[in-house]
Amino acid sequence: xxxxxxxxxxxxxxxxxxxxxxxxxxxxxxxxxxxxxxxxxxxxxxxxxxxxxxxxxxxxxxxxxxxxxxxxxxxxxxxxxxxxxxxxxxxxxxxxxxxxxxxxxxxxxxxxxxxxxxxxxxxxxxxxxxxxxxxxxxxxxxxxxxxxx
Length: 149
What we know:
Blueprint: H1 2-17, E1 31-36, E2 41-49, E3 53-58, E4 61-66, E5 70-77, H2 81-106, H3 117-136, E6 141-147
Antiparallel strand pairs: 1-2, 1-5, 2-3, 3-4, 5-6
Helix pairs in contact: 2-3
């Protein structure tokens, strides 16, 4: 049953990409990428759309592109690098604190370091590692809003 639902949702998403009306939802000034027949493409700011054409501002000129020539229209999504960095910082610090607390708890009187050194070392180390991973995590990118059949 779940497999059938996934197939229906995937088919619905693919069908939606073939809908030229999706291009109407792109805000004016949004960065878009348009692929044309003959492997030519344009990247610029969205200006307007009609049933027959798409107008973008690219290479310091306004370009009117015929719908019949357009293979694909993609929009650039917002970058979430700051959010990912903060999430990585929090998760890394939490994981480091947990590991440090576990090490501190398992340490008995024969340990060569004091009771809280595990937390003191692993919390900032985990925060550092998590921050680096958060900064490196892929974000944003291009999302297709229209594809010709």
